[in-house]
Amino acid sequence: MAIKRVLTKDFATENLEQLSVYERTGGYSGYKKALEMQPDELVELVKKSGLRGRGGAGFPTGNKWSFLPKGVYPRYLVCNADESEPGCFKDRYLIEESPHQVLEGILIASYAIGCNLAFIYIRGEYLPQHEALETAIQEARQAGYLGKNVLDKGYDIEVILHRGAGAYICGEETALLTSLEGYRGEPRLKPPFPAIKGLYGKPTVVNNVETVANLPHIVNNGADWFTAMGTPTGRGTRVWCMSGHVNRPGNYELENGTPIRELIEEHGGGVWKNRKLKAFQPGGASMMVLLPEHLDVGLDFDAIAKAGSLAGAGAMVVMDETTCMVDAARRYVKFFHHESCGKCTPCREGTFWMANLFDAFEAGAAKASDIDLLLDIGYNIDGRSFCPLGDASTWFPRSVIKFFRDEFLEHLSEKGCPFKKTVQEAVA
Amino acid sequence: MAVSKQTLAEIQAVAARYPSKQSAIIPALWAVQHEQGYVTDAAMREIAQALGLPPSLIEATASFYSMFLTKPEGRHDVVICVNAPCMLRGADEMKDYLERALGVRDGQTTPDGAVTWHSTIECLGACGGAPMMQVDHRFEENLTPERIDVIIDRLRKQPAAPLAPRHPLPGSPLKGEGEAHAKTAEPAKKPAGPRGRRSQA
Ligand SMILES: Cc1cc2nc3c(=O)[nH]c(=O)nc-3n(C[C@H](O)[C@H](O)[C@H](O)COP(=O)(O)O)c2cc1C
Ligand code: SF4
Ligand code: FES
Question: ipTM of the assembly?
């Protein structure tokens, strides 16, 4: 198992973002093939491929599609390009390098679920990426891939590119739909799931950018080709976003199941400055920390879950021996506090108190009992929040307390951060 | 300053594309911010009128999202990320350097009106190129003090950048190009105040 280029196969091709170049690499042949098939056949194909969502939760894509109630129209497809999980920058990369691949995936998914109006919800900060997608949509329209009666197949499809405006919570699918309807981006109660009652109260599928980018390849090459890659419960590849203390940070597309060691040591060139690895964090800000002893775990939803963390949205944050784990956790907690939508009390108040306590540790003003107080607040948020943002805000800090309690104690005895010569002022 | 007829027409054309005109609130706020540099209460009332919705609805939405500005800012917008993945690669040091180089504090505008900057705990999606900042929404990665100097020097000389893509809408009579492109806000004479609650790190 190693680098396996499926989505990124042609990324070295010059001007791949242009329609004519994308077509030369085989672009839109998957869409053309899909239009020759019955929508139900496509749903079955994607089910058989075992493709799981790449947005974080890993839900089987074909199954999600088949939950749409029969005979209820209109239906909507929303491509989630809100990518804001700290540590993640793969959707940005996929859009920048090949916006048509993403668009082709959206068109295939739309046809499969019987949708005539699809949306792309892109985070407000991704302006050049917005431009790339807008240009791709224009080009595809001119080529007759979208619009009325596409390629004379009697199918109508329109795609609206919708720009967010700075809110991490709008990546959560129900908050995204609320935001797309023009409201404040607050999550909704599930059930009803979006498949039953989504955008404008209609059946809706929300799929991540990387998820849909897989579709042209699955249609072109078949389910068996896809299931031959990866692990039994994690077919295909994933694009891992590596950051932190490695020699070569960046995006790496690897076959699912590839050992984490290979990603960090081989592709990433190992820990920088000849330092030792202290910890790493798969999945993004939400996920639990893992230790060097977990290096041989495979990059796969289930394997990482078994090791005590989650694969989430495919981040890999690498931390060397000089990292202050308390400060790392403090930043994430401040992030969640900042991004809490305020709808429910455990998350809104709990992240505030956790952030205050972490500031106190960094500033040397914490008490010994504050470690357990942090855990206590964590228990009171997790499982008691309205949406997963609240729950996830506690996972990294609690895992850091579990594995690095001594660092909290050092912050107490040193009256501040032992990793910094001078105690820096709070993040802001 | 009244919202231009062109922008109002554009807002109505956008609204016609969505199954619900309320979905056009965020695009409308973007269009106004694009034209005027920020969104005033008066502009929100104009949006409300153009969309046939109550002004309170526009305000409720606008105040939720961190990227809508309520006050004029400098010609250029600089945001530096200090979340953990960036911290690991020296974002704090770059933030301190940026602050010294610009000579104004987090959230403020340089006296010449060239740059408004702030740090953010929101990951901006470039952790692989950390330390990073966004300059007028474009990524500047692998920052060093020298690179920051070059960028600031450029911004002090450059006029404002157009902030949003302007593609003509399908089936719309508008071609959307022209004078409305530039951020027309006057450079802030006094440092702009703190931004909305969600933009503070
Ligand atoms: C707080 C929060 C933030 C999320 N952010 C994103 C995001 O930025 N992009 C994304 O695709 N999914 C995100 N998700 C997951 C979505 O809710 C949803 O599961 C996903 O978009 C479904 O697509 P998939 O099945 O293709 O993975 C987020 C979830 C939560 C709870
Ligand atoms: S858990 Fe947090 S983000 Fe989710 S609904 Fe509650 S306050 Fe909002
Ligand atoms: S953490 Fe700074 S860009 Fe991602």
Answer: 0.95
What is the structure's pLDDT at B164? 54
Nearest to A173 by CA among A203, A159, A158, A193: A193
Whether residues A124 and B67 touch (CB distance < 8 A) is answered with yes
Among B26, B92, B130, the residue with its CB nearest the CB of A424 is B92
Q: Which of A173, A238, A395 to mutate to test the pocket of ligand 1 (most atoms within 8 A of CB)?
A: A173
Q: Are A87 and B127 in contact (CB under 8 A)?
A: yes
Which DSSP category does B63 fall into? T
Correct CATH for B1-72+168-201 of 3.30.450.150, 1.20.1250.20, 3.40.50.2300, 1.10.10.1590: 1.10.10.1590
CB distance A314 to A209 below 8 Å: no
Of A123, A182, A338, the CB nearest to B121: A338
A151-201 tens-digit pLDDT: 999 999 999 999 999 999 999 999 999 999 999 999 999 999 999 999 999
Supply the pTM of this predicted model: 0.93
Looking at chain A, which residue has its C-alpha nearest residue B135? A125
Q: Which CATH number fits domain B76-157: 3.30.300.20, 3.20.10.10, 3.40.30.10, 3.30.2270.10?
A: 3.40.30.10
- Between residues B200 and A331, the one the model is more confident about: A331
Catalogue all structural domains in chain A, each as residue range(s) with its CATH number: 19-228 (3.40.50.11540), 231-320 (3.10.20.600), 325-427 (1.20.1440.230)
Query: What 3-state DSSP class applies to A412?
Result: helix
